Amino acid sequence: MSTSAAPTLTTWNVDATHSSVGFTVKHFFTPVRGKFDRYEVELAYDPENPAESRVEVRIDVTSIDTGNQDRNAHLLSGDFFDAETYPEITFASEDVRVVADGQLVVSGPLTIKDQTQRIELAVTLDGVKELPAEMQEAFGGIEQIAGFTASTRLDRTDYGVGVGSWAAALGVGHADNLNLAIEANR
Q1: pTM for this one?
Q2: Nearest to 184 by CA among 33, 9, 60
Q3: Distance (Å, whole) CA 49 – CA 129
């Protein structure tokens, strides 16, 4: 009986300088955009077999930035993220499905404030590029670069974000858009 070895996934380095983790939520009718400046992404991606890929994300809640220090401080408080008690947001893929050429759905648990919900991220492979030899040296030995964008829609109240009078959707909407733009290399 012959056994075949499991495929070896290539681990990609995420270039945080050219990547972002952001969100949009409505304040009454106006979209408010924010981002998290500190996060870690562990990405194992196989361009030949994307369904075997996996990703883990850890976001430092204290790095939230909405462009307004007072709002940032309020979001870090017990009214919203309670960052002192719950300093991280985490996601770990459990399933990757190819839905079209360059289009994936990545599913797994997202944990915010000790509340876990299974989510699906719609992922687009923006491209994979081999660097010519002369560029590899200039970029520190990088042979390949890949770009991904991902998004999902969340209800913040599923995670206990927004308590008391802030739980109502009147001032701060329930639906949040989470967006990731990842540049990775190997």
Answers
A1: 0.89
A2: 9
A3: 16
